[in-house]
Amino acid sequence: VQLVESGGGLVQPGGSLRLSCAASGFTFSSSAMSWYRQAPGKERELVARISSGGGSTNYADSAKGRFTISRDNAKNTVYLQMNSLKPEDTAVYYCNAREVLLLHEFNYWGQGTQVTVSS
Q: What is the arrangement of strands in the sheet containing 77-82, beginning at the earlier edge strand?
């Protein structure tokens, strides 16, 4: 299983970034996908989640109205479009996949990509 995030970097407040997560080694199209983040000294937190078919999404309150999660099952890729970025969005962003096989749930994680929002 591999989840490879990309698209992080340094951006000024108010700017935008688009994160991507390329998945392989499991059945992407039947797995819910999520983005989490972890800031220094803080717990990892859920940012956004999308259902396997893409028809259902949910967001942390901090992300609502600014971030959009989407997926392309043909490309085995999930995205996080982040607009109106704030310094408090600075964190390592992780891609997560949740696969259910024979009633057992498996969680897979990427290595993370750093997002820094600073002037």
A: 2-6, 17-24, 77-82, 67-72
Q: Determine the Cα–Cα distance for residues 79 and 93; give it in Å rounded to an integer.
A: 12
Encoded tokens for 37: 């983040």
DSSP classification of residue 109: E
Q: In this structure, what are the phi and psi dihedrals at residue 88, rounded to the nearest 5 degrees? A: -75, -5
Dihedral angle computed from the Cα positions of residues 65, 16, 68 and 86, in that order, rounded to the nearest 10 degrees: -50
pLDDT at 33: 98
| Contact call for residues 95 and 26 (beta carbons, < 8 A) | no
Quick: pLDDT tens for 36-78. 999 999 999 999 999 999 999 999 999 999 999 999 999 999 9
